Amino acid sequence: MQTPIPDYLDELLDSLRGDTSGARAGYIPELANANPDLFAMAVTTATGSTYAAGDAQAEFSIQSISKPFAYAAAIMDRGLPTVLASIGVEPSGEAFNELSLEPGTNRPRNPMINAGAITAHGLLVGPDADPEARVDRALRLFSQLAGRQLRVDENVCVSELETADHNLAMAHMLRSYGILADDPHEVVTGYTRQCSILVTVTDLSMMAATLANGGVQPRTRERIMDPATARQVMSVMAVAGMYDGAGDWLTRVGIPAKSGVAGGLVGVLPDQVGIGAFSPRLDEHGNSQRAKRAFERLSSDMGMHLFAPSHGRLDVVGVQREGTREVFSLQGNVQFTAAAELLDLMAESTATGQVHVDISRVYSFTDVARRMTLEGLRRLRLDGRRVFLDDPLQALADPDLGDGTYPETP
Ligand code: GLU
């Protein structure tokens, strides 16, 4: 059988392709030439399975999505107290390119607005760092998080630098207030190179899944940052990731996220998933219109919301072979992540004998996990296997396989 999750993502993208509203970023000439019809999405679970759909191979510049990850690097390089002395953690409620300095301290309000991100870039590596070393630091970290070597798109970088007056003006202001220590031109050039690093939606999902895991890359299993840094970054994404729309986004969609003007959007649900989406046309706030809607649908279809009851990893999955019988067992409160793992295990199976799904130690299923589990059973039966469900606690009330038939009882 095949896991149905890619089909679901394909269908999700298809349902939104008709939305051609919005416009490509106009202020960076190279982005204004992007193919506006590209559309892709990828989800990576905390356990390292990736599901991708649409133009998942398309590379685009990371832009402002670099901000949370560069902030993480600044914390790792300089320590949280030093970073907090220069950059706040309060929502600004303003657009990405507002100066938004805190009265009294003159710190940029948070690292997700340009003023804060330029400051964070200036903190990378250490005091008096070589400008090139700061860019290398960002590139190295982003590559580790993505699990592959990334590179800078020089055309995008040059194109943005030609029109970077606004960021330069902000950097000069920050320097005049003593927030930025280095030469404003060098820091803005480095920040712009950091924004020009090319990624795919799969890279973004992997980077975010590392945050979701508290700093462990789900595929390479490498610890890249400590859990406290991952927590700090996710918290700031939740309060300030969506700029002036942060409150509306958090309440409605509930996936801490960060957008970029090239059309990317990254989101994270602690302990569960990292998500990447991409489509170049932007809404009036500068967020990708289709990527934003794809997140909205994922959140409502999959019950993925930071404050949904029983978020977090409260479930366990396993498989055992007993002669020609295969027993898949689940435990705990089963939600999307465990159900996706179950489907992966089922998809990997090459056995031909009976299939038993043992849910005798399951307390509850989320609605989507229930549907995914039943769909796995339905597909295995279509593959010609006899399927059994061991459910003494009736956790899966009415396990109709979608055609009025039921799994057998052991
Ligand atoms: N490099 C862009 C800038 O600084 C990033 C903006 C964004 O992606 O929101 O203007």
Summarize it.
The chain is an alpha+beta fold. 42% of the residues lie in helices and 15% in strands.
How would you characterize the overall build of this protein?
A hairpin with a 4-residue loop joins strand 5 and strand 6 (264-269). The longest helix has 16 residues, at 131-146. The protein has helices at 5-16, 29-32, 66-78, 80-86, 114-123, 131-146, 154-162, 165-176, 184-195, 201-212, 227-240, 246-252, 289-302, 336-348, 367-382; strands at residues 40-45, 50-54, 60-61, 198-199, 257-259, 264-269, 273-278, 315-322, 325-334, 355-365, 387-390. It has a 5-stranded antiparallel β-sheet. The mean pLDDT is 91. The protein has 410 residues and is of the alpha+beta class. The structure holds glutamic acid (GLU). The site of glutamic acid has 10 residues, from loops.
